[in-house]
Automatic annotation (TrEMBL):
PANTHER family: INTERMEMBRANE PHOSPHOLIPID TRANSPORT SYSTEM ATP-BINDING PROTEIN MLAF, PROTEIN TRIGALACTOSYLDIACYLGLYCEROL 3, CHLOROPLASTIC. Pfam families: ABC_tran (PF00005). Keywords: ATP-binding, Nucleotide-binding, Transport. Residues 247-278, 329-362 are annotated as: Disordered. This is Phospholipid/cholesterol/gamma-HCH transport system ATP-binding protein. InterPro entries: AAA+_ATPase, ABC_transporter-like_ATP-bd, ABC_transporter-like_CS, P-loop_NTPase. It comes from Williamsia limnetica. Residues 5-241 form the ABC transporter domain. GO terms for molecular function: ATP binding; ATP hydrolysis activity.
Length: 362
């Protein structure tokens, strides 16, 4: 199972500018979580704080039982081996080929022989659909391919914790869907703890087991997907529906007068600029690809939700109970489908060939 990640009372500032304050949450081990929030709310800063690249002014960051805000540089170096990180821009070395970029963590952190390194690297290259591009430089490929090369590098040490900073940026909707499925499949096979920062509503609604929301320098909510997808919290509801109506404005937040004016316009028939229809509610979660193990995270998450179900509003309770029935049916259908041949997705590649993404092997 993936390593535990817990933060308590975390506060971060740059000079006089406070980014967020008193953030506390625990990422459930072996589950996929998503962190949402308007642009500029410090989501990427939060990821960098989790791996010790940035130091908070207050609070603790406990990784697998160790508070990294208090450990030595040597201890932090060892703890970082638990992580695989996909940075927003891929963070590849421009002078290295894709192969050498992906091999870098193995050469830095292990004593593997070059033949063994090549086997691992080529496995990860095939996994993300970049076979044939391994000798290219980052500047010779598209942004989407660089993002997938960054993911291959993040996976090369078989991490227990995977952090993804806007993995969908630079990808078209089709390849975003493939990348989302890949993360779910990885979780199914190695039970890794995964945290994804994203602005993509489709990813936020269909991929994670848990959802968190940063706004006004604070963590508004964090919890199981069923709880947030049925929440009446205005910020969460506005963000997940992509609407103008609500507390979030162009400059992050609005005053009451502006919110009232916008609501009056909508009441008069003016579009709020959001989704074509109200998508609030529990939409089906992505399932692991047929033939792979069922994700253990689903049962763990549902058990937590059942413990707090009685505390939620009745409409939310009914929606959650219905979603559990639908999810059980989908899992049964998935077990039946394991006898079918796995389809080969089409990735963008240097030679325009169709690549089949194999199962991830820990």
């Amino acid at each position: 199972m993936g390593a535990s990640v817990s933060v308590e009372g975390l506060t971060k500032s740059f000079g006089s500018q406070n980014i967020w304050r008193d953030v506390s949450l625990t990422l459930p081990m072996g589950e996929v979580s998503v962190l949402l929030g308007p642009s500029g709310t410090g989501k990427s800063v939060f990821l960098k704080t989790l791996i010790g690249l940035l130091h908070p002014e207050q609070g603790s960051v406990i990784i697998d039982g160790t508070d990294i805000t208090k450990c030595s540089s040597r201890e932090l170096y060892e703890i970082r081996k638990l992580f695989g990180v996909l940075f927003q821009d891929g963070a590849l070395f421009g002078s290295m080929s894709l192969f050498d970029n992906i091999a870098f963590p193995l050469r830095e952190h292990t004593k593997k022989k070059e033949d063994d390194i090549r086997d691992v690297v080529m496995e990860k290259i095939e996994l993300v659909g970049l076979t044939g591009a391994e000798n290219k430089l980052p500047g010779e490929i598209s942004g989407g391919m660089r993002k997938r090369a960054g993911l291959a590098r993040a996976l090369v040490l078989d991490p227990q914790i995977i952090l993804c900073d806007e993995p969908d940026s630079g990808l078209d909707p089709v390849r975003t869907a493939y990348l989302s499925q890949l993360l779910i499949d990885i979780n199914a096979q190695i039970d890794a703890t995964i945290l994804i920062v994203t602005h993509n509503i489709q990813v936020a609604r269909t991929v994670p087991d848990n959802i968190g929301m940063l706004f006004r320098k604070e963590l508004v909510m964090f919890g199981p997907r069923e709880v947030l997808l049925t929440s009446d919290e205005p910020v969460v509801d506005q963000f997940l529906n992509g609407r103008r109506i609500g507390p979030i404005g162009m400059s992050e937040e609005k005053d009451d007068a502006q919110q009232k004016r916008e609501q009056e316009m909508v009441d008069a028939g003016h579009s709020d600029g959001g989704t074509a229809e109200d998508v609030r509610g529990i939409v089906p979660q992505l399932q692991a690809t047929p033939g792979l193990p069922e994700r253990k995270a689903v049962a763990r998450r549902q058990a937590r939700v059942r413990e707090i179900l009685h505390t939620l509003p009745e409409p939310a309770q009914r929606a959650i109970e219905d979603s559990f029935i639908e999810e059980a049916a989908a899992q049964a259908k998935g077990r039946e489908a394991t006898r079918l041949t796995r389809p080969a997705p089409v990735w963008e590649s240097s030679d325009a060939r169709t690549e089949q993404i194999p199962a991830y092997r820990a």
